[in-house]
């Protein structure tokens, strides 16, 4: 997993690429620490370059929502496609997360 966090006006953009799996938990948590330290009230997780996600990766998306709630931020997820979309739908994450 590689990521780039940037300020984009009224939101913080997290562009994530590669895989989002159990092996990437520490990197994902580092990214979240960076995000919550920023002043923008909204966070956009761009998953358009994610090729694979496992159950741990889906848990990380829920963790992002939890951290956002704790800090008064909102999270939107965009760019869900392919295997990632199938997993999100299978786990009904689209009912819990704001997926665009």
Q: Could you please describe the fold and organization of this structure?
A:
The structure is a single chain. By secondary structure, the chain is α/β, with parallel strands linked by helices. The chain has one domain: Transcription Regulator spoIIAA, CATH 3.30.750.24. It is 38% helix and 36% strand. Strands 1-2-3-4-5 form a five-stranded mixed beta sheet. Strand 2, helix 1 and strand 3 form a beta-alpha-beta unit. Helix 1 runs parallel beside helix 2. It is globular, with a radius of gyration of 12 Å. The two termini are 21 Å apart.
Q: What's the gist of this structure?
A:
The protein is α/β, with parallel strands linked by helices.
**Domain module count:** 1
Rg over CA atoms, rounded to whole Å, is 12 Å
What name is given to the CATH topology? Transcription Regulator spoIIAA
Strand order of the largest sheet: 1-2-3-4-5
What is the correct CATH architecture?
2-Layer Sandwich
First and last CA, distance: 21 Å
| Backbone shape | globular
Proportion of strand residues: 35-45%
Mean pLDDT: 95
Structural class: alpha/beta
Main β-sheet description: 5 strands, mixed
The fourth-level CATH homologous superfamily is STAS domain
- CATH C-level: Alpha Beta
What is the number of beta strands? 5
Uncertain ranges: none
Instruction: Enumerate how many helices there are, as a single number.
Output: 3
């Amino acid at each position: 997993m590689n990521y780039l966090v940037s300020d984009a006006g009224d939101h913080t953009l997290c562009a994530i690429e590669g895989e989002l799996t159990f092996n990437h938990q520490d990197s994902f948590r580092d990214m979240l620490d960076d995000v919550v330290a920023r002043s923008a009230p909204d966070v956009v997780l761009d998953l358009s370059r994610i090729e694979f996600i496992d159950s741990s990766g889906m848990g990380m998306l829920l963790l992002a929502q939890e951290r956002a709630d704790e800090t008064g931020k909102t999270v939107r997820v965009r760019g869900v496609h392919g295997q990632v979309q199938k997993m999100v739908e299978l786990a009904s994450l689209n009912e819990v997360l704001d997926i665009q």
